[in-house]
Amino acid sequence: MANRIILSAVLALMASAAGLSQNWAVSSNVAGLADRGTLNATASRSVSKHWSMNAGIRYNPFSFPDDGTESGAVRKKQRMLTLGARYWLWHVYSGWWMSGAAQYQEYNFSKKGNNDTSEGDRIGAAFAAGYSYMLTPWLNVEFGLGFWGGYDRYKVYDCPTCGITVDRGAKAFLSPEDVIIALSIIF
C-alpha cells in the first residue's frame, strides 16, 4: 500500500513538472547590446500552442566620447518598457512569429558631430516579425525586424551643457524599431 502511494505521488509530481516545461523564456537582443551598449531583457510566457505574452525592458545610461561636440559625448540614453504578445505560426518558441506591443520610452539622444541634443517621451505601438531557430530544446536564436509608431513629446537643445531650448513640441512618429538577433533560454 505504501509503495502505491509513493508511486502515485512520484507520477503526479512528474506529470505536473512536465506540464510546466517549456512555458517560460528569457531573452536578450545581442544586436541591441551592440547599439551603444543598450542593456535589454525580455521575459515571455506561453499561453497556448500559438500565443505567448511578453514584457521587456531596455536601458542605456552610457555616453561615448566624441571630439566633434561641445560636451564631448555621443549618447542614445533611454529607458523603455514593452508589453506585448507574439503569435507563433507553428508552435510557441519555434519557427516563424509575428508580434505586437505597447511601448513607452524616455530618451536623450545626441549624434556624432552634432551639438543638438533631443530628449523626450514616446508612447506607441510596435510590430515585428521574425524566425526562432531551435539550437537545443532550451536554447533558441531569434532573427527579426520591427518598427514602431506613436506620439513623441520632445525638446531639442542647442548643446548638451548650455540647456538653451531651440525646439519643443509633440508629433506623431513612425520609425524602425529593432534588428533582432537574440538568444532565448526556454524553461
Please characterize this protein's 3D structure:
This protein has an eight-stranded antiparallel beta barrel with strand order 1-2-3-5-6-7-8-9. A hairpin with a 7-residue loop joins β8 and β9 (165-186). It has helices at 2-20, 30-34, and strands at residues 24-29, 39-46, 51-60, 63-65, 73-88, 95-110, 117-136, 139-157, 165-186. The chain has 187 residues and is mainly beta. The radius of gyration is 22 Å and the shape is elongated. The model is unreliable at 13-20 (pLDDT under 50). 21% of the residues are buried. The longest helix has 19 residues, at 2-20. The chain is built from two helices and nine strands, in the order αβαββββββββ.
